[in-house]
Amino acid sequence: MTDKSQTSNWPMVAAIAGVAAVVGFGAARVLTPAPAPQEQAHAASGGKAAESAASQASAPASDEIKIPADDIRASNIGVQAVAPGDVRQEILAPATVVAPPGSEAVLVSKVAGTVLNVNKRLGESVRAGEVLATLDSQDAASMAAERRVAQTRAEQARKVFARESNLFQQGVSPRQDMEAAKAALEVAEAETQRAVSVARAAHVSDDGRGVAVVSPIAGKVSLQSATLGAYVSPNDALFRVTAPGAVQVEASVTSSEAGRVATGDAATVITSSGEQVQAVVRSVTPTVSGNARRATVVLSLQGQGEAKSAVAPLVVGEGVQVRLHARTEQAGSGGLMVPEEAVQNLDGRDVLFVRTAQGFRPQPVRIGSRSGGIAQVLSGVKQGEQVATRNAFLLKAEAKKSAGDDE
């Protein structure tokens, strides 16, 4: 009887225990304080920061613009080192590329006549001593005749002197006859030398029918005005031959600027395409000339003849700009300088695109004064750092594009 009573009470005990457990859990939830909202936010942000740090550690900086070296060259993006200097010392002047002395020859007509034939055309290569054209001229016939007459007279005088010298040695003729024959021979030889030199200088042909126009140097025909059958006068320019290779640049400056420039000063030649070539001041004229009353600064290019540069060679007659790094008596350093085109405004800030191993990265900088295409850098970069100069705006556009894609 007792066992049956105990067995029937187990369901009631289990139900009472379950109710007690539920009541105890609820009391614990009520009595236990919940974590503060700030602590929850901090924990969440800490987890996200850790994930972000891990991702940044495994990936490159997001603001770097990756550009292969071949694409940089194809886009004609110039790179230049940040250099020390003072904007106040810079002189920007117009200049012209010219041929140095000895590397250009103007061929003129030595006589009046008609162009008989033209052997070379514009742009063709010529050798030193090569005939470019031939002129048919009566003057040539006259010079050839004078040469022949002089040679004949000299030969006759030579025979007379030989005969008189022989007679004097035999005691037949007096000394004065021999001396007179000797004097006549010297006169005839001098006249022969003159006539031969005149004909040779005019390049008269052996038959005396024409005059050759001969190039004294090797190079290429850069100017041709000789036309077949045309009549030319003495000293008319027929050809200009320019030797390839070395050139020099002549810049025009004011008298006050010329006083600040000295031989040996550094300079930069800026071509019409924006390319920059380093140069050095070779000489400065001591006087001014021309209607503008300006002095001339002659520049020699650095590294001429070296088979390196990717910069296109300068062409004689080309107009360029020159930036002269002139000296000044003012003390102190002006800081750092970069070409003004290197400074770009990105999101309201002045930046320079600094060269990296894989491309460029925008570097915020503080810019001071600007003058003559040069900007003074007060802070943000160091001397010697390579920055984009020519076509730097292409990097700015790429940076904005990348920022838009990230958003």
List keywords for this structure.
alpha+beta, 34% helix, 4 domains, conserved putative lor/sdh protein from methanococcus maripaludis s2 fold, Elongation Factor Tu (Ef-tu), domain 3, 24 strands, 407 residues, 30% strand
Can you describe what's shown?
There is one protein chain. The chain has 407 residues and is of the alpha+beta class. The protein folds into 4 domains: 32 residues; 94 residues, conserved putative lor/sdh protein from methanococcus maripaludis s2 fold, CATH 2.40.420.20; 96 residues, Elongation Factor Tu (Ef-tu), domain 3 (Beta Barrel), CATH 2.40.30.170; 135 residues, no CATH class. Helices cover 34% and strands 30% of the residues. The protein is built from 7 helices and 24 strands. The strands form 6 sheets. The chain has a 6-stranded antiparallel beta barrel with strand order 4-13-16-15-14-17. Strands 1-21-20-19 form a 4-stranded antiparallel sheet, with helices on one face. The radius of gyration is 45 Å and the shape is elongated. The two termini are 82 Å apart.
